[in-house]
Amino acid sequence: MQELTQQIRSAAKRLLQEERVDCVLGYREGTVPMRERPFFAYTPEEADQLVWTRFCVNNLANFLIGRQDRVAVVAQGCVSRNIVGLIQEKQLSREQVYVLGLHSPGMVDSAKVQAQFPNRVIHSVEEDGEELLVNGADFQERVKVRDVKRDNCYTCTHRNAVIYDEFLGEQGEETGGGNIDNVAAPWENLSLEERWQRFEETFKDCIRCYACRDVCPLCYCNQCFVDENQPQWCGKTVEETDVHTFHILRAFHCAGRCTDCGACESACPVGIKMRRLTSKLEKDIRELYGYSPGLDLESTPPLSVYSPEDPEPFSTG
Q1: How far is the first Cα of the chain from the last one, in angstroms, to the nearest whole number?
Q2: What number is the average pLDDT over the span 121-140?
Q3: Domain range annotation of the chain
Q4: pTM for this model (two decimals)
């Protein structure tokens, strides 16, 4: 990973020195362990702060929305797919963004690491191949990366950047080894009543902080439906009806567009497994329309177009 960090820094410095871009969007070391954060480098000197580790989990495509300057962006598979989506939806032009493509090794879930050390403070975490060296005031232990990966990285289907102007490092395996459809499969074996019960259990701890919405590259509306008052789609309370309405409407808004980047789950302060809901919608899109989002600049998300030949398995006519 250190070698890739140096490649990212070198590419960023070159692009800034040649004035091919106005800034480079990547990651820098966070202020606490396992929390690398998005970073804009505007000068070659600032490019020395860029890093690439297994803790680079924010979806950087979210920070491209509304920008008017020329931006180079560090992009693994899911980030590049969201860039494609933003270009498809006219939120960004292809000429405006210079993509530094990467292969994702599978990122680490900091909550899973911390869960292995309950009531202990982690001071630092170092990467050592397929292991993490976890350090605290009175301990130093090793953790296998495979045991603490983010859930979506196990089932990732496109680890390599799907579009890029320059690919850094070597391309690797496309999949994480898991079956993405298995995330949605439990829903399909349940009755309607059981599905609703599972839905209620999944979202019962929601505090309506909107972290899931704010980190999602798909949620770029100038005014979110939760802030509408004419009509008022849902209230702002944490009552069940309002919580359920928010998550259902947001999920359908993302249907056919979600790349399963996992940003929503990583940002959730109470650990809600939102992919249980979105994965089912995305599975339906793949089966009904044969479409996976963010793979082709020339394609159109199926729910944004109408065709008389659209499948209607729900029709009673």
Answers
A1: 57
A2: 93
A3: 2-109+149-303, 110-148
A4: 0.91
